[in-house]
Design goal:
This is Transmembrane protein, putative. This protein is 90% helix and 0% strand. By secondary structure, the chain is an all-alpha fold. It folds into two domains: 1-30; 32-71.
């Protein structure tokens, strides 16, 4: 009997904790159009940078491959 009461109290405490975290998150994070556009621009710049790095690496590897073919 006491174990059931203890388990129920623990479950209720967990539920309240999760609800509190959800409410806190909702208060902290409010997406705005400006914020979304900023994030997308930042992500686009990162993708362009990664693409350029891979492109340069591919060109270097291709040059090395050709160099070994003709040696």
């Amino acid at each position: 009997m006491e174990m059931e009461i203890t388990e129920r109290k623990e479950q209720q405490a967990c539920v309240e904790k999760v609800q509190d975290e959800d409410e806190q998150y909702e208060e902290e994070y409010v997406p705005t159009t400006k914020g979304i556009v900023y994030q997308l621009n930042k992500e686009q710049k990162n993708l362009k940078r990664q693409f350029n790095q891979v492109l340069i690496l591919g060109i270097i590897l291709f040059i090395i491959f050709l160099w070994h073919q003709y040696l």
